[in-house]
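Q: Start with the shorter request: fold the first protein.
A: Done. Sequence, then structure:
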Amino acid sequence: MGDDILGGSKVMETQSQQPIPNTARRSLVNELIVRICVSVVTVISLSLIGSDNGFNNIPAFNYLLASVILAFLYSITQSVILGYHLAPCGSNFMQMPFYRYFTSTADLVISLLLLSGSSAAFAITTGANTANTFFAQANGSASLALFSFFIMLPMVAFSFQRILSPY
């Protein structure tokens, strides 16, 4: 008789089988869209700075290249994890406290790497001849890295929101 009142086996559902609430799903979809935008902008910046061999001689451009590569790889990895989590067969991996703290810290570090990489490249390109296509490409790549930083700012807010109020 106790099984009839409690709903039998429905009480035994695990947390990983429970559906994601609609507000949390909407927030995760927004986060996925922003991460894809960061990936697209960083790959364009990467293609600009990687198209010329002369960038290897200047350390500031190497730093910009490294920060853009790290941001691209991190955004792609997080997009795959988010896509897997949003899929019907996905797990509740994102509910784990370690993942929430790691993501918020990594988002902050990646955004600051993008800011410092673009600042280092702007320091070189500001005093250079802008008619030169080499420095024009470097300036474009640094501008896109700075734009990626501004796109990453909501990601930092989403990550810290997940720490403060997990769904």
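Q: Next, the second protein, separately.
A: Sequence, then structure:
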Amino acid sequence: MNAIESSAASTTRQLTPKREQIIRQQQPGDWLTEPWLIREAVTAEGDVWQVTLQGKVLATLPDWAGNLALWIAETHDDVPELLGEIDRLRARITELTALLDKAQAEARTAKAGA
């Protein structure tokens, strides 16, 4: 499997409970809730992209890595949002499963009484 195939496979594999737990543990938590931004800057090494939090530099990337800098900044907001959606969908599945179980039980009772 080459790097492109490996990358494609990694985006389609099922999220295991262990992997989800690792992702949740890697989140910075409430102490870094402010937006992460990117900016172009000039340093002694030349033009760079910086990922910042409240004006403080979190990461500096080479000038060709602007898309990566944007991805880092956006992921900070996107991953917690996706984890929240997982939680919401799981709760909805639980709710719908309970409704289905109830409907099936009522159907069995009605069939037995007929």
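Q: Describe the second briefly.
A: The chain has a mean pLDDT of 89. The chain is about 60% helix and 20% strand.
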